[in-house]
Amino acid sequence: MNWIFGKSKIKKISTSELKNVYLPDKKENYFLDVRTRAEFSGQSIPGFINIPLQTLSEHLSKIPKDKELVVICQSGMRSTLACKLLTRAGYEHVINVRGGMNRWF
Predict the structure, then answer these.
(1) Number of helices (H) and strands (E), helices first, in the chain?
(2) pLDDT tens-digit map of 27-38
(3) CATH number of 72's domain
(4) Helix (H, G, I), strand (E, B) or coil at 17
(5) What Pfam families would the database entry show (predicted)?
(6) Is 73 annotated in the active site?
(7) How far is CA 75 from CA 1, 3, 90, in A?
(8) Which of these is catalytic: 56, 69, 73, 101?
(9) Do the Cβ atoms of 47 and 26 come closer than 8 Å?
(10) Using CA atoms, how far apart are residues 84 and 78, in angstroms rounded to an integer?
(11) CB under 8 Å to 94, separation ≥6 — which residues?
(12) Using only C-alpha atoms, what is the Rg of the chain?
């Protein structure tokens, strides 16, 4: 319900934080890339699972609710939408990577 009133549970991190804080501790997190399969095949970060945004709602059962979810896309737009969808679906610890893959390299 918090998302209705503008109180977001979605944390935002930089790609630098992703590299230095989140990726080294992979056990505590679930890494989700919501780009298309073609984008993911072309370039991706090891450890990320690809579930395109267009099919995300159909695959929620594959995503654990007991881990922090770190979500990335190409620029941050689709991952923001994915984070909102996940939050509405009951995921409590959702993290959006600002700037996405555009800022990764």
Answers:
(1) 4, 5
(2) 889 999 999 999
(3) 3.40.250.10
(4) helix
(5) Rhodanese (PF00581)
(6) yes
(7) 27, 22, 24
(8) 73
(9) yes
(10) 10
(11) 9, 10, 11, 68, 69, 71, 83, 86, 87
(12) 13
